[in-house]
Design goal:
Radius of gyration: 33 Å
Structural class: alpha/beta
Number of helices: 36
Length: 894
């Protein structure tokens, strides 16, 4: 028989898949002897069974009842007992942290009868009615489906009527009336009464948490964070402890280190006379955790001790929720805390220095995605002038965008290509789509542990919270700071590192981390941490990292960033600009003599380009791809030419003969689907002299560099090969020209010849192609297009967003490699290619070469190198090192 419920004393963090992260960590804290309110966990197995059938699993509520009985016996009280009620919290707890994305219901067990008993036993009538109104509000919205804003509207009306600035100004009588108003609202909106059976409250709350796994905001968050949809959530049922019993009570969130910077110390927020939801919701501004030392020094010292215990035990930054009930400290939750990229590098380095983790573990705890964030520009603080407002630096970085005041507007403007900043009093889980769409989040309320701060840090969004100088008027769609009014659409700059907001677009400068990669300058502790991690990654990785570079400048920059060669030099980029006229001349040539004249003019220009790149990468391999795109791409647009000629003829004038010839050529060469037309190796086979000119330019550049004392290592790559016969014929032409240059120069020129694997047929016949190819390089952009049958430029705009929303894609296959389809072709090509030629060098030069998750796949598939844009080289280096540590696949860094 399947077991669905576990007491906290029965679990531990090794059961996170079954008990969820929260339940496993509650059990772990209980095992460590920390003060955890008693409770039990309903497993993810139960959730998956419920979601599969839509009904509660057989025996589930019997198990819940048995564990509840044990809880009641230990407490000496029953759930909802009229004279002294036991009350429960019901919270979600998925395997991976999803802050605020699923449901929580507090104060389960309160009824019209038991609220009077709670008032009597607590000696605090106001507290009892405050707890009851919270239950009706939470239960009504999360379980019974009432729009949460309706409850907020009733509360706001009451506060206005009483002249109350906050909830704390409402009396017990006010709150009792509010409960009645809430219950009437529930009846009006649902047609049923708020349940007076504590057992029914518990049952429905558990099932509501299960259902929230598939709520819109939870699904959006999972897709964003690449969390599988089939995991389900656990449910934690726990004895209530109360932070809203008066001034000697309160709730808080704490971090064992600063989650924004990684600095050691106690960081967090505390709110007296409040339950935990008030802290994370940001509805009242908190005080710093250090203020607790004066408010309740005993609890503060106990908290410090428990935090030290947890950080040592988990060997990482811990995120802790706690409640103080009349001077008694209770630990409600702990988890490995979400952090910014800056904090991740700092914490990993410091923990390794302290001996809590190994150097290899420190490498596993950072990510290429985080490194990329640290390379983003920062605001030039010397040029921004006076800040408009200041708040808490909740998530670092620099972002510029138009101010918007709701999630829907942020999504709409972002989809239209506009950068936006989402401005709210405080965010809620329903704001998640807008937070994803925005460049930054700015709130006037809340602290570093508010919903906005936690979610923004997890997503890498810039965030400033608690900017109290700002008055947000969402109805009027504006915010004000003193006499300054900022209307929706006004551009603002948000500095999440300093907690500052500026009017207009502030100027940007390179980050210190970017300067380090450019110059080697180690300017601060963060750069030192990054440098140390990169040294460990380079020492661990097996994969080489090369760069895609088409100019000497790009090649030199890539080398500074640590590239070990050029994996893709696109020769067609050298035909642009002024040289386009020479390509036009070659295409329009009426005979072989004219064509050779045009090619002869291109030869020295190409030779100079290759020589410069080989010099920049002296001693390192430079893989030069022969021309790939169809020739008509170098000609003017057919429609523009036709319109220009028609305009001239419309004036009764004779069109330019050159334009007429060009239009004829473009019309002859027009293809319905040029991606699958006359391009790549096909050009070399049907356009006389083109390949010979390019190969001669490469060979002569090698001779030139050799005579200058260099060590050129050029490699020639033939694109778009689908059959070994194509490569055999083209290779013969390549070797003929190389032999000619060797004989003419007296310098032996022996260059490896290989091919791009970018067609499914090439991957499936890789064993035969390897007979002629000395190396493979996967062109994963085209391989993805041809495997999926996608035209990238068309489909990304047309339906990719719908595919992502429907879960067909977890992420775009052009961003992260499709392992099941394209990845299988890669593995087939690797295995069959090396079966023919064991020493076959294999790399990848598509955009996936710089994608962190894809790098792990290429490591596991046995490739020798990845190649990516120069600015992604450090990211690929880091991920290649992490891949080597994990052995096969990416370690989970969530």
């Amino acid at each position: 028989m399947v077991r669905y419920v576990y007491d906290f004393a029965e679990g531990g963090r090794d059961l996170a898949g079954l008990l969820g992260g929260k339940g496993a960590n509650l059990a772990e804290m209980a095992r460590l002897g920390l003060p955890v309110p008693p409770g039990f966990t309903v497993t993810t197995d139960a959730c998956r069974a419920f979601l599969a059938t839509g009904t509660e699993p057989d025996g589930l509520m019997r198990e819940v009842s048995d564990h509840l009985t044990t809880l009641e016996e230990a407490a000496g009280r029953r759930l909802g007992q009229p004279d002294d009620p036991l009350l429960l919290s019901v919270r979600s707890g998925a395997r991976f942290s999803m802050p605020g994305m699923m449901e929580t219901i507090l104060d389960i067990g309160l009824t019209d009868e038991s609220v009077l008993g709670l008032a009597k036993t607590s000696g605090n009538e106001r507290f009892a009615w405050d707890s009851y109104r919270r239950l009706v509000q939470m239960f009504g919205s999360t379980v019974m489906g009432v729009d949460g804003s309706l409850f907020e509207g009733v509360l706001d009306d009451l506060k206005r009527a009483r002249g109350a600035a906050s909830d704390l100004d409402l009396t017990a009588e006010d709150l009792a009336g509010l409960v009645e108003s809430y219950r009437n609202l529930v009846r009006q909106e649902t047609g049923e009464y708020f349940p007076q059976s504590p057992a029914e409250q518990l049952r429905r709350a558990v099932l509501a948490v299960f259902e929230s796994w598939n709520g819109e905001r939870a699904r959006i968050y999972r897709h964003r964070e690449h969390i599988p949809d089939d995991l389900g959530t656990a449910v934690n049922v726990q004895t209530m402890v109360f932070g809203n019993l008066g001034a000697d009570s309160g709730s808080g969130v704490a971090f064992t280190r600063d989650p924004a910077t990684g600095r050691p110390g106690l960081y967090g927020d505390y709110l007296a006379n409040a339950q935990g939801e008030d802290v994370v919701a940001g509805i009242r501004n908190t005080v710093p955790l250090t203020a607790l030392a004066e408010l309740d020094p005993v609890s503060y010292e106990q908290l410090r001790s428990h935090m030290s215990t947890l950080e040592t035990h988990y060997r990482d930054l811990c995120d802790i929720e706690f409640t103080i009930e009349r001077g008694r400290l209770w630990m409600l939750q702990t988890r490995v805390g979400k952090r910014t990229a800056e904090a991740a590098f700092a914490i990993a380095t410091e923990l390794a220095d302290e001996g809590l983790i190994t150097p290899d573990e420190s490498l596993a705890r950072v990510s290429g995605e985080g490194l990329a964030r640290l390379m983003f520009p920062r605001f030039d603080t010397s040029a921004v002038g006076k800040a408009l407002a200041h708040g808490l630096p909740a998530s670092p970085g620099a972002a510029v965008g138009a101010a918007v005041f709701d999630s829907a507007e942020a999504v709409r403007r972002s989809a239209a290509g506009e950068k936006v900043v989402l401005v709210r009093q405080e965010t809620t889980p329903d704001d998640l789509p807008g937070m994803i769409a925005a460049q930054a989040v700015l709130t006037s309320r809340g602290g570093k542990t508010s919903h906005a701060a936690v979610v923004a840090r997890g997503m890498g969004r810039v965030c400033v919270c608690g900017a109290e100088e700002i008055t947000v008027d969402t109805g009027a769609r504006r915010f004000t700071v003193g006499a300054t009014v900022v209307e929706e659409g006004t551009v603002v700059s948000v500095d999440g590192s300093e907690g500052a907001v500026y009017l207009g677009a502030a100027p940007l400068v390179d980050s210190a981390v970017m300067r380090y990669f450019e110059t080697g300058e180690r300017s601060d502790a963060l750069v030192g941490a990054v440098a140390g991690v990169m040294e460990r990654a380079d020492g661990a990785r097996r994969l080489e990292v090369r760069a895609n570079a088409d100019t000497p400048e790009d090649a030199a920059r890539a080398r500074r960033f640590g590239a070990q060669g050029v994996g893709l030099c696109r020769t067609e980029h050298m035909f642009l600009g002024e040289r386009r006229k020479l390509v036009e001349a070659m295409i329009l040539a009426s005979d072989e003599t004219e064509r050779e004249r045009a090619l002869g003019a291109l030869l020295p220009l190409q030779r100079k380009d290759f020589s410069g790149i080989l010099e920049a990468m002296d001693g390192l391999p430079v893989t030069i791809r022969l021309i790939d795109p169809p020739l008509h791409e170098f000609l003017p647009d057919r429609t523009e030419l036709a319109v220009r000629i028609a305009a001239v003829e419309g004036r009764g004038e004779r069109p330019d003969p050159h334009d007429t010839d060009l239009l004829g050529a473009v019309s002859r060469m027009h293809e319905e689907n040029p991606m699958l037309g006359l391009r790549g190796v096909r050009l070399g086979l049907v356009v006389p002299g083109l390949v010979a000119m390019q190969v001669r330019a490469i060979a002569e550049a090698v001779v030139e560099r050799t005579r200058a004392g260099g060590r050129p290592r050029a490699e020639i790559m033939v694109p778009l090969v689908g059959a070994v016969e194509e490569l055999r014929i083209e290779r013969a032409e390549v070797e003929r020209v190389l032999a000619e240059v060797s004989q003419e120069s007296g310098v032996p020129v022996r260059l490896p010849v290989g091919t791009m694997i970018e067609l499914p047929r090439a991957a499936l016949t890789a064993g035969r192609i390897a007979e002629e190819a000395e190396f493979f390089s996967f062109g994963t952009n085209d391989l993805t297009q041809t495997t999926w049958g996608f035209s990238r430029d068309d489909v990304e705009a047309e339906f990719f967003s719908a595919y992502l929303d429907k879960g067909i894609f977890a992420t775009s296959p052009f961003e992260t490699l499709d392992r099941d389809g394209v990845g299988r072709l890669v593995r087939i090509a690797v295995d069959e290619g090396r079966a023919t030629r064991p020493d076959l060098k294999i790399g990848v030069c598509g955009e996936h070469g710089g994608d962190p998750e894809s790098v792990h796949f290429f490591h596991a598939a046995g490739l020798d190198y990845v190649s990516c844009s120069p600015f992604r080289v450090p990211v690929a280096r880091l991920e290649a090192g992490r891949a080597a540590l994990s052995g096969t696949e990416a370690s989970d860094s969530r």
